[in-house]
Structure formats: structure tokens, C-alpha cells
Amino acid sequence: MLELYGCRGSGSAAIEALLEWAGVAYTFHDVEPKTAGPEADAFFALNPLRQVPTVRFGDGTVLSESAAIILVLAEQHPAARLLPLVGDAARITALRWIVFIAANLYPAISVGDFPERWVEREDARQALKEGSRKRLEYYWQVLERALKPAPYLAGHEMTALDVYAAMVAQWGPGRAWINAHCPHIASALALAERQPFVVRVWERNFKG
Ligand SMILES: N[C@@H](CCC(=O)N[C@@H](CS)C(=O)NCC(=O)O)C(=O)O
Q1: What is d(CA 97, CA 78) in angstroms, rounded to the nearest whole number?
Q2: pLDDT tens digit string along 43-99?
Q3: Is 110 in the pocket of ligand 1 (CB under 6 A)?
Q4: Which protein residue's CA is at the shortest distance from atom 14 of ligand 1?
Q5: Buried b vs exposed e over 97-125: b needs ≥16 C-beta within 10 Å?
Q6: Is residue 52 within 6 Å of ligand 1 at its C-beta?
Q7: In the predicted model, is pLDDT for residue 20 greater than 90?
Q8: CATH class of the domain at 89-194
Q9: Domain boundaries, the chain
Q10: How far does the centroid of ligand 1 lie from the alpha carbon of residue 137, in Å?
Q11: Which of 59, 141, 173, 205 is a plausible cystine mate for 13, CB 3.0–4.6 Å?
């Protein structure tokens, strides 16, 4: 059975939601990589960056990096239509912006969460945190300008892009900011968040 390594409120929520969308059975390992011990060691062996989400497939293959996990799940479960079909322009849109999120928004979140990985001085860390938030706002504005939700982010079908974007929208600059500054994106995210599997997964990840 597929094993998902994650932690509540993290990027593993998007993968949980996609697994539920596709009806894939999985075991969830709640990982706390910073607490030393055999579990942390075992996780380090799977992913030397100690980052979630990470999955291990039934045959033992390990896959990290959220965008790669999304693409592989879409490939393995074509009937679920996590992505539009090959040849559909909406697929290109979905792939472009999934990678955009993974390459830009997700790292900016990480820089803001762990400025000590980048700079030594406390004032520099504070400045980096603030800078990462401003950069995140800019990335959301890029999404708002580029995508014309109709009604979903990539067109008339909901795709993994909607779920992935709804997940990163839970983090900085925050949903209230996105609602105020990116109304088109916000309306598409709200549609994804109405899906029962998203409601269920968000409930255990982002509420309370
Ligand atoms: N590039 C990775 C980033 C994953 C990532 O940064 N995950 C966070 C949780 S949302 C994490 O595990 N952070 C712990 C750390 O970086 O030490 C991906 O797209 O999956």
C-alpha cells in the first residue's frame, strides 16, 4: 500500500486530498523530523532533506517533491482525471502553474519559515522573512493576472492545480489577503474547497 509521510498543516495535505480524490488507499505517517529517534532516522533515509510530502509506493520506490508526486499520481490513476488529457491545452496550463507553485511559492514559504538557513544575523533573518512575504504576494498577483478561472484554475474541469493552489493558499500571505487582492483566483479556490474530499482533508489539516 502507498505510504504518505506528512504532517498536519503541511504540503502533504494536497497529496492526501489527491489520494482521496483518486480513491487510492494509503497509510499516513505523521512525521516529526526534528525530534531525534528511530522514526526521524528512518525518514532521513527516505528523504535526506527531511521534507514532507514524501511517498513510498508499494514496490518500495520513494518519491519526494510535491509537484513530482502530483504528476506521478495523475499518471498512475488516469481514470481519476487529476489532470486533463494529453493534448488538451488545459493540461499545459495545469502543468505550468503546478510547477510555478513548486518552484516559486513553496520555496518562498520555506525561506520565510527558516531564514536561519540562509543568513546568520537576526536583523537579516527578519528582513528575509519580510521579503519572502512580499515575494509571495507578488507570486499570487502573477497567478491572478495569468489565470482566467473558468470556473477552475485551468478551465472547466477541476484539476490537481486547484487542490495544490488551495493548499498553498492556507499559508502566507494568508487567505484574507488572497481574497482581497486576487478575487478570480480566490473564487476558483473556493470551488475546490467545496469538494467533499477537500473539506475532509482540510478539516484535519488546517482547522483547529
Ligand atoms: N520542494 C519540496 C518542499 C517541501 C517542504 O518544504 N515541505 C515542508 C513542509 S510543508 C517541510 O517538510 N519542511 C521541513 C524542512 O524543510 O525542514 C516539495 O515541493 O515537496
Answers
A1: 20
A2: 999 999 999 999 999 999 999 999 999 999 999 999 999 999 999 999 999 999 999
A3: yes
A4: 51
A5: bbebbbebbbebbebbeebeeeeeeeeeb
A6: yes
A7: yes
A8: mainly alpha
A9: 2-80, 89-194
A10: 19
A11: 205
